[in-house]
Write a structure and sequence with these properties.
Layout: H1 4-19, E1 29-35, E2 49-52, E3 61-71, H2 77-90, E4 95-111, E5 116-132, H3 136-142, H4 149-187
Length: about 190
């Protein structure tokens, strides 16, 4: 006869297993910034203008750095563009020029049982962070509306990714511990 304790341990183990998302299926973005020059700004810009590859950039600007945003499997493209704006904003840029979108296949986890290699597709946005000289002509052509909603959204996403990195090993440890307890219970004849 199976005891209630045994059934409880099995259900607990199954519940904990369902709470952990394997790392290869998590949606995250990663940003990098390579400085080309520096700029002092006491007040960060209130709008980040985006200019994609092929769009004219016939205005005066100073190059500040190269930004690259890498989106893991199924990353939301709007979130990636918000992260691109955030990186520019955090380095005092008010624009990003020559933005291009690329895809890169990365070799991932190896599954020994099925003799396969997991290939991950990453989406990459890259561009040059610039400080655009804001003239009346620029405002007339591109507008001057304020839009800083990308800041909070990106900071929340960065915080959630950091928490996930901390919680994943803890959840794995709990699952292994309860698995050992369950096995010990089975062997001792619960």
């Amino acid at each position: 006869m199976i005891s209630h304790k045994f059934v409880f341990l099995i259900l607990l183990q199954l519940g904990l297993n369902s709470c952990v998302t394997p790392r290869k299926y998590q949606v995250t973005t990663h940003a990098s910034f390579a400085p080309l020059s520096s700029m002092d700004c006491e007040v960060p810009p209130a709008q980040i203008h985006l200019f994609f590859e092929g769009e004219p950039t016939n205005f005066t600007y100073k190059k500040l750095g190269i930004i690259e945003i890498i989106g893991k499997r199924n990353a939301n493209l709007k979130d990636m563009l918000d992260h691109l704006r955030y990186e520019a904003w955090s380095h005092c840029a008010n624009g990003v020029i020559h933005i291009k979108k690329e895809y890169r296949a990365m070799e991932g986890d190896v599954d020994i049982d099925y003799e396969t290699v997991d290939i991950r597709n990453e989406t990459i946005y890259s561009g040059i962070a610039v400080n655009i000289e804001m003239t009346p002509e620029f405002y007339e052509k591109y507008g001057e509306e304020m839009n800083t909603e990308f800041i909070d959204k990106t900071e929340i996403r960065i915080s959630n990714n950091a928490e996930r990195k901390i919680l994943h090993p803890v959840a794995t440890l709990l699952i292994v511990t309860f698995g050992i307890l369950l096995l010990g219970g089975l062997l001792s004849g619960i």
